[in-house]
Specification:
The chain has about 100 residues and is an all-alpha fold. It is built from 3 helices and no strands. The radius of gyration is 24 Å and the shape is flat.
Amino acid sequence: MRKTSKKFVLSFILFFICNVNTFAKANKTDDKLKTMKDVMEIIAWDYISETKSEKLVDGAIKGAVAALIDPYNYYMKEEEYSAFKDALAGGYTGIGLCPEVRN
């Protein structure tokens, strides 16, 4: 019985040691997300004009994607993506003008 207990404790210690880096990375990500949440709350409470949280979140996502090394990544909301696909397909709306794709 004692051998099993020692094996279990040793396995637990090895598991913990092997995953410390993973836990540390997750903790750093959580800290950054908490900072982002704090900034959004400060903006919501103290900014000079009214802000929409959806617009702030979209801006944060666009900023995160823009910060990647590969310059060909781009985040689009559903309506932006739909307009982009229409523009690529040569689709048109209204009086026949191509829709403008906005950043």
